[in-house]
Write a structure and sequence with these properties.
- By secondary structure, the protein is mostly helical.
- The chain has 2 domains: 44 residues; 204 residues, MetI-like fold, CATH 1.10.3720.10.
- Helix content is 86%, strand content 0%.
- It contains 12 helices and no strands.
- Helix 3 crosses helix 11 and helix 4 runs antiparallel to helix 9.
- The longest helix has 42 residues.
Length: 287
């Protein structure tokens, strides 16, 4: 036996251990992700500091009746939170947001799935959804107030109209964009209709549904404020109008900033939920 043959035999007998390399690659990837999160956080903090500084400098040269600085807004927010004024106006709006958004999500996803599944419903109802979506929702507010009055029901309907259409349209597009080959493979393995939907269609359309949730949340916040402006003397929208009419600009900016922080917080919670419900979409975004 030659030396080359003996070497080949030793290589064939000795097992190749790749677990160490795999663990080392995972540690490197985790370190890279951690470093990227720190860099993203630093960039956000720097951009926030620059924006607040520019806002503060811009407020120096503007009449305080028309504009204010972030330091004055912070002081006003402290007093409004301490006195409970901000929470008194914010809580009714949050209740309307929760109810209207929940209805929009349930009915939007359900109707979107039905339209994508049954072609008869698709042909019969898609034109009406397109027609209603093309009408500015603001134009329907006076009619809703006329029919439902000025109580919470009208607010929920207004918010529902704002948040419903992004949900139904994105769900419909998500189901329609599923690769037909995946469904053919499922049918080849004799999957039932329920198994096809649960194991193929819904997981493939989840990125579209999550995008619809984000769009619906943003439009829902707009509908929440608009409903407060039109329907009642309560809610955070009314607080904005009341403080603006009395030229309390610093107090007017408090609910405005609160709405922005609320949108950022809810969007972050949706992203966190996405990591648990659809982890493959979050992984693809990180890559």
């Amino acid at each position: 036996m030659t030396a080359i043959e003996r070497a080949r035999g030793e290589l064939a007998v000795q097992p190749v251990d790749v677990s160490g390399d795999q663990a080392r690659a995972e540690r490197v990837a985790a370190t890279r992700r951690h470093r990227r999160r720190l860099i993203d956080l630093a960039i956000r903090l720097v951009s926030l500091a620059i924006a607040l500084t520019l806002w503060e400098v811009a407020a120096w040269n503007v009449d305080p009746v028309l504009f204010t600085s972030p330091t004055k807004v912070a002081v006003a927010a402290y007093h409004m939170v301490l006195s409970g004024e901000l929470w008194t106006y914010l809580w009714p709006s949050l209740v309307v947001l929760a109810i209207g958004f929940a209805f929009a999500v349930v009915f939007g996803i359900g109707i979107g799935l039905l339209l994508a599944r049954f072609w008869v419903l698709d042909v019969a109802l898609t034109v009406y959804i397109t027609f209603l979506y093309s009408i500015p929702s603001v134009a329907l507010v006076p009619l809703i107030v006329l029919w439902a009055g000025f109580d919470t029901t009208a607010k929920v309907i207004i918010l529902f109209l704002f948040a419903f259409f992004p949900m139904v349209i994105n769900t419909y597009q998500g189901v329609k964009s599923v690769d037909p080959k995946l469904i053919e493979v499922g049918r080849a393995f004799r999957c039932s209709e329920g198994q096809l939907w649960w194991n193929i269609v819904l997981p493939a359309s989840l990125p579209f549904i999550v995008t619809g949730l984000r769009l619906a949340l943003g439009r829902g916040l707009i509908g929440m404020v608009l409903a407060d402006l039109y329907t009642a003397i309560s809610g955070i929208g009314y607080l904005i109008v009341r403080t603006a009419s009395t030229y309390q600009v610093d107090k007017m900016f408090v609910p405005i900033v609160t709405l922005g922080l609320l949108g950022v917080t809810l969007t972050a919670l949706l992203r966190l939920a996405e990591k648990y419900v659809a982890p493959w979409t979050a992984a693809s975004q990180e890559d």
